[in-house]
Amino acid sequence: MGDLTIGIDIGGTSVRASVVDDRGTMLDTLRAQTPPTAQALEHCLDRLVGELTSRWDAKAVGLAIAGFLTTDRRIVRFAPHLPWREAPVAEEMTRRVGIPVYAEHDANAAAVAEWRFGAAARGHNTVVLAIGTGIGAGFVIEGEIYRGSYGVAPELGHLTIVPDGRACACGKRGCWERYCSGTALVDTVVELLADGDWGRSQLAADVAADPGSLTGRRVARAAADGDAVAVAAFARFATSLGQGLAMIADIFDPDLIVLAGGVGAASGLFLDEAREHYARQVTGAGHRQLARIRGTQLGETAGVVGAAEVARQAIRTAARPLADPRAETRPVSGL
Predict the structure, then answer these.
(1) What are phi and psi of 33, to 5 degrees?
(2) I want to staple 126 with a disulfide (CB 3.0 to 4.6 A). Which of 2, 140, 233, 239 is the partner?
(3) pLDDT digits (tens, 9 = 90+) for 11-68
């Protein structure tokens, strides 16, 4: 099985930890609710790692974190749905669990997983979009993660696609993720229900009976069943996705775009239509090559698998002998 490592995907509501082998296979998984304080969260991670290492000889731990990390990934500067602020998370967790711990942005972790084991394996310049509650993004250039000058690139979910549009938690209005995410699907359904009578829509009836039952997953299930409201919501979603994909193509000119994350895993509901919108709206439409657009192969496991791979590559790099300073060296994965 090669080197075993532990990948942990830390979300705003839940934590998933898995032992992962060097083929990207998850061998053992634990889940927990995300605690509200930094101390409680670190204790939770300590407990999960302790339980897994009691059963498996894992060499290191990778953390997939939705937030801003420093370029060396030692400090979590800010995580909007987690309690860490300017926190030396990797160092503190290494002290707690007794094996090396490495942190990574969750979208970058998903990009690593898809590039190493999934749909991005044959990409040269690849954008991986993690579409879930919001939009996270990772950009892989010939196997290396692009981080920008200060470690926060690329924040594609906060590109403005609707001037003065829906308010976003980032403080702006009209951000892409406000029209193209799980939460965006919910908002779109609410708008559609307010605008007209949808007759026999089961989703409309369910929402009228229990407004709290409306989630992105519920909309996806209804769309798969052909519910008129849900299908209309995904049509708007596809339009917004295509618009954003055209912007990405104009900025990065990738040869491959992978749609990951919880909503990305439902790409069969919207991908063909989004491709059509993208092809029409990209600059130079009809006179340039278009990026291939694929759905995820790893689904919601990409963050866990990618975090484990980040840890595996880090310990392998640390174990290598010092290179001849006269020779140019470059990590295969850039991790």
Answers:
(1) -75, 145
(2) 140
(3) 888 899 999 999 999 999 999 999 999 999 999 999 999 999 999 999 999 999 988 8
| Ramachandran class of 204: left when φ > 0, alpha when ψ lies in -120 to 50, beta otherwise | alpha
pLDDT, tens only, 115-152: 999 988 878 999 999 888 889 899 999 888 998 888 88
- Residue range 179-199: average pLDDT? 91
Whole-Å CA distances, 117 to 46, 70, 306: 27, 26, 9
- Helices and strands per DSSP (H, E), number in the chain: 10, 13
Query: Tokens for 251?
Result: 């900025």
H or E stretch covering 206: helix 202-209
Encoded tokens for 244? 């954003």
CA nearest to 110, candidates 133, 91, 87, 127: 127
List pLDDT tens digits, range 272-293.
999 999 999 999 999 999 999 9
Give the three-state DSSP class for 221: helix
**Residue 323: per-residue pLDDT:** 47
pTM above 0.85, yes or no: no
For residue 200, give the amino acid letter.
R
What is the rounded CA–CA span in Å between residue 204 and residue 210?
A: 10
Q: Six-digit token pair at 45?
A: 């991670």
Q: Which long-range contacts (CB under 8 A, 24 or more apart) does 84-88 make?
A: 84/38, 84/41, 87/38
Q: Which residues of 92-126 are buried (b: 16+ CB within 10 A; e: fewer)?
A: bbbeebebbbbbbbbbbbbbbbbbbbbbbeebebb
Q: Residue 212: what pLDDT?
A: 87
